[in-house]
Amino acid sequence: MQTSLATQFPALESVTRPTVPTEQAAYYLNRRPQTLRIWAMNQHPIRPLNIHGRLHWKTEDLRRLLLGVAK
Questions:
Q1: Which of 8, 32, 48, 70 could connect to 55 by a Cys-Cys bridge, CB 3.0–4.6 Å?
Q2: In 10 A of CB 50, how many CB atoms?
């Protein structure tokens, strides 16, 4: 049985961490995680940070892209 991703991640407006992992960013952008990994290689306007070998996406960049605002 597959669990719903909606129950795993809080609303983007309530996220207080400076970055989120690829899976969480993909959920907010309504994309597959692999799409974001491709964006990271192809100079997409949103650029991830590499933290301990993992891609993390700035919460501020996600808000700017989706909501048109940055907190």
A1: 48
A2: 9
